[in-house]
Amino acid sequence: MHRKWGNPLCGLLLAALCWTPVPVWADDLFKPGVTQSLSSDRRATQPGDTISIVVLQAAESSTSLQSGTRRSTALSGQITAGKLNESGQLGLGNSFSGSGEVRRTERFVTQMSATITFVLPNGDLRIEGAQHMLINGESTTVEVRGRIRPTDIDSDNRVASNRIADAQINYNGKGFVSRSGKPGPIQRIFSFLGL
Question: 3-class secondary structure for the chain?
Answer without folding.
Answer: CCCCCCCHHHHHHHHHHHCCCCCCCCHHHCCCCCCCCCCCCCCCCCCCCEEEEEEEEEEEEEEEEEEEEEEEEEEEEEEEECCEEEEEEEEEEEEEEEEEEEEEEEEEEEEEEEEEEEECCCCCEEEEEEEEEEECCEEEEEEEEEEECHHHCCCCCEEEHHHCEEEEEEEEEECHHHHHCCCCHHHHHHHHHCC
